[in-house]
Write a structure and sequence with these properties.
With about 290 residues, the protein is of the alpha/beta class. Helices cover about 35% and strands about 25% of the residues.
Length: about 290
């Protein structure tokens, strides 16, 4: 069982500063780091580092070679990534001394994906594979429809939150992943309670309070591990990538959630996006110490 991810690939420019600038304010930063980012790339890296077989679909421009090389080094198959006449997506990230962040993203090549390319992913998928999408690329509507038509399990990380995108994709999703704020936004917009959201599996991350997973058999929760965060940029992507890896590896829900929580806890103690994601061995050692 594999994870096929149609996901964003970004160049992250992370600036550390005493506090995140407010509108109209200029701040001096204490450091600048460039690295691999994008929700899609982060989630693929997390799943691969957890031991899953990951095939990434997406797009980069002529400036994307370094990002693809980093993904490949983490164990992600990037052989299907498109090269397009647009700059690779990039993000500007401000991180304050408490580890909180504010992010601006230019989509670039991530928005050059069309229905024909989505069809390429569908043709590559096997019946037991999971397909993963987020809201940072184009082409997700066509892919969601195709997954539904072919009976493929679709996991949808509905971020950045966009009601029109969620409305189009949700009827075709097997698993919906949101953070607590996004879940509240969706419930308010649809005038539904969380329990009434029309999806078989609902994963809601709660930051320092852990996460909860609603399944057809009931709801279970996992606490967050207490750590001193220095950069929360990739916490949610790490959690979801590790959880999806657990599903492809046949782990039970509780074990998959615990490993995802541990991986996310480790990630927030490290700077950067994909560079902060721990290996399976790191997670094993962490759990041996904490549990």
């Amino acid at each position: 069982m594999r994870l096929l991810n149609l996901g964003s690939i970004n160049v992250d420019c992370a600036y550390h500063c005493d506090h995140i600038p407010t509108p109209g304010e200029t701040v001096l930063t204490t450091s600048l780091k460039r690295g691999l980012g994008g929700k899609g790339a982060n989630q693929s890296v997390a799943a691969a580092r957890a031991g899953a077989q990951v095939l990434h679909f997406g797009a980069v421009g002529d400036d994307g070679d370094a990002m693809l090389a980093r993904m490949n080094a983490f164990g992600v198959d990037v052989s299907q990534v498109l090269r397009v006449k647009a700059p690779t997506g990039h993000a500007v990230i401000f991180v304050d001394t408490s580890g909180e962040n504010a992010i601006g993203v230019h989509p670039g090549a991530n928005h050059a994906i069309d229905a024909d390319y989505a069809e390429r992913l569908l043709d590559a998928a096997e019946p037991n594979d999971w397909v993963l999408i987020q809201n940072e690329t184009s082409g997700i509507d066509a892919l969601a429809l195709g997954c539904s038509a072919r009976g493929l399990a679709l996991a949808y990380a509905a971020a950045p939150f966009d009601l029109a995108a969620v409305t189009a994709v949700l009827p075709h999703a097997s698993l919906l992943a949101l953070n607590e704020i996004e879940c509240a936004q969706l419930c308010a917009a649809l005038k539904l309670t969380e329990d009434d959201l029309p999806v078989d599996y609902l994963l809601v991350t709660l930051g320092s309070r852990g996460a909860r997973l609603r399944t057809p058999e009931g709801t279970r929760s996992v606490p967050a591990f207490a750590v001193e965060p220095i950069d929360t940029t990739c916490a949610g992507d790490t959690f979801l990538g590790y959880f999806m890896a657990g599903l492809t590896q046949g782990l039970d829900y509780d074990t998959a959630l615990q490993r995802a929580s541990a991986a996310s806890a480790i990630a927030v103690t490290r700077p950067g996006a994909s560079a902060s994601i721990p290996s399976a061995e790191d997670v094993n050692a962490f759990l041996l110490e904490r549990c």
